[in-house]
Amino acid sequence: TQLFSMVFRKLPGVSASGMGLRLSQKFVFLLFLSGLVTLCFGALFFLPDSVRLKRIFLESKTESASEKSTSSDHGATSDTFSYKKFKRCLLRPPLGTDDGKPSDPKTNERREKVKEMMKFAWDNYKRYAWGKNELQPLTRNGHIGNMFGGLRGASIIDSLDTLYIMGLVEEYNDAKDWVQTSLDLNSNGEASLFEVNIRYVGGLLSAYYLTGEELFKNKAVELGEKLLPAFNTPTGIPRGVINLGSGTSWSWGWASAGSSILAEFGTLHLEFVHLTELSGNPIYTEKVMNIRKLLNKIEKPHGLYPNFLSPVSGNWVQHHVSIGGLGDSFYEYLIKSYLMSDKTDDDAKKMYYSALEAIEANLVQKSPGGLTYMAEWRGGILDHKMGHLACFSGGMIGIGADDGAPEKRQHYLDLAAEITHTCHESYTRSATKLGPEAFRFDSGAEATATRLSDRYYILRPEVIESYMYMWRLTHDPKYREWGWEAVQALEEHCRVESGFSGIRDVYTLTVSHDNMQQSFFLSETLKYLYLLFSDDDLLPLEDWVFNTEAHPLPIVRKSCLKPVQFADPNVWEES
Ligand code: DMJ
């Protein structure tokens, strides 16, 4: 009646109280009102999926209905992680076979080609190496290796999210079934803490966030728990190797003076924060915050972080600094920790930008031919060599460009583009158009390998990873062209009858294959290529960060994921 009176009081012949309305007028009004409501509701269905209101409204309806009919939603209760609430907060709900489909037919064709490569790599793994860690495509058998202790199925875990986002549904279901029936976490054997974390924990976490399958969450947390004994050292800096059965841990035999490696203990943060998020157990975050605290406090030569640190004394063991192998993903995880915290983790931000300044001041060089590169630093002496691994830094500096000092934004974008250009040069200057493991800038060399031992290519992703980020950040078409050059080279030189293989020398066209289809080829190389040829709304960078094995992890937004409350937020300050 109040509504009637508000609307009708101004109409001629209607009394101020609205009570003067005739029955027929009331009926017409009601009819009009219900028509309007139906129209608004119906219109929601026609809005594009990216309209947040649509998802929030429609999905909250589905959610409350399903909550009434089932007692639990993926095990979530109101005070623990809620998968559905999290999913609503993403700009775009994940999966749908056409997610990210580009409208341009040429790009779409390229994307389909990458999908076909993934299917080919997967089918051969399934046929010849099912349940083993990697496929050996020439001998057509499985490889177990010694990086994951008794764990098996590295290629399956690393592929889950790639299969899922590509819409390879049958293959994804096979992978999921294997995790359900055959992934045995009760294994002994020497495992690399770093590799198990980035591939297994990262792969399971992202499979969970993409699909909501409880199975993946439970396995990730179960495995995370088994990694904890590695942190039982006088400093809390974990050792590199752990026996997942007994919990005994030790340092790599090759690491000087029993040291731990920067890129290993510095590449746990993203996964461990999510383990806390999903389990509600603060211990994981405490462990990595303790590492952060020590690194923040310790004196750094010229502001640089050396690659080796003693887990006993907490001191650097050698002054060898590299943005490539042994150092690389530590820097990556600083900026990504900041981004993943919805830009609230200010310590990570500060540490990242001061490290980057020190790197620029001490490591970044320009070759006589005008190529920008990252040299390595050995106690103050520069080694003018850049590893393939260091080529991820184009993308890293690109995604961090927005958040440093505002006047530096363009500078960082330029630096990111220059590094990516140099890495592309290392590809174009080889006969196969694939890049070597390391290339040099001395004795007349410019982005080429001078040593026989540096000439191999093992299907690594880092150069393509930087193409993908630079494409997302600039939309310069050259990055897609460079990615396509890599696809053609992979097809020509690495595709064999039963899978993809690395090659021993990128400078010769009579290629010799190394007989190994690395699991990161499925997890990273092909995923980054697929994203490069997709629209930006497939795993948008505003919603996801990729761990160093390219497993997407969601940004922890206060309104979506619920950062775990610590009894004492400064617990790691005190410990
Ligand atoms: C991957 O396992 C990860 O990207 C890691 O950070 C470095 N090396 C390989 C791929 O080259």
UniProtKB/TrEMBL annotation:
Gene3D superfamilies: 1.50.10.10. Its cofactor is Ca(2+). It is a single-pass type II membrane protein. Ca(2+) binds at residue 548. GO terms for biological process: carbohydrate metabolic process. Disulfide bonds join 391-423. It catalyses: N(4)-(alpha-D-Man-(1->2)-alpha-D-Man-(1->2)-alpha-D-Man-(1->3)-[alpha-D-Man-(1->3)-[alpha-D-Man-(1->2)-alpha-D-Man-(1->6)]-alpha-D-Man-(1->6)]-beta-D-Man-(1->4)-beta-D-GlcNAc-(1->4)-beta-D-GlcNAc)-L-asparaginyl-[protein] (N-glucan mannose isomer 8A1,2,3B1,3) + 3 H2O = N(4)-(alpha-D-Man-(1->3)-[alpha-D-Man-(1->3)-[alpha-D-Man-(1->6)]-alpha-D-Man-(1->6)]-beta-D-Man-(1->4)-beta-D-GlcNAc-(1->4)-beta-D-GlcNAc)-L-asparaginyl-[protein] (N-glucan mannose isomer 5A1,2) + 3 beta-D-mannose; N(4)-(alpha-D-Man-(1->2)-alpha-D-Man-(1->2)-alpha-D-Man-(1->3)-[alpha-D-Man-(1->2)-alpha-D-Man-(1->3)-[alpha-D-Man-(1->2)-alpha-D-Man-(1->6)]-alpha-D-Man-(1->6)]-beta-D-Man-(1->4)-beta-D-GlcNAc-(1->4)-beta-D-GlcNAc)-L-asparaginyl-[protein] (N-glucan mannose isomer 9A1,2,3B1,2,3) + 4 H2O = N(4)-(alpha-D-Man-(1->3)-[alpha-D-Man-(1->3)-[alpha-D-Man-(1->6)]-alpha-D-Man-(1->6)]-beta-D-Man-(1->4)-beta-D-GlcNAc-(1->4)-beta-D-GlcNAc)-L-asparaginyl-[protein] (N-glucan mannose isomer 5A1,2) + 4 beta-D-mannose. Its main location: membrane. GO terms for molecular function: calcium ion binding; mannosyl-oligosaccharide 1,2-alpha-mannosidase activity. It holds the Pfam family Glyco_hydro_47. PANTHER family: MANNOSYL-OLIGOSACCHARIDE 1,2-ALPHA-MANNOSIDASE IC (PTHR11742:SF28), MANNOSYL-OLIGOSACCHARIDE ALPHA-1,2-MANNOSIDASE-RELATED (PTHR11742). This is alpha-1,2-Mannosidase. It comes from Mastacembelus armatus. The lineage of its organism: Eukaryota, Metazoa, Chordata, Craniata, Vertebrata.
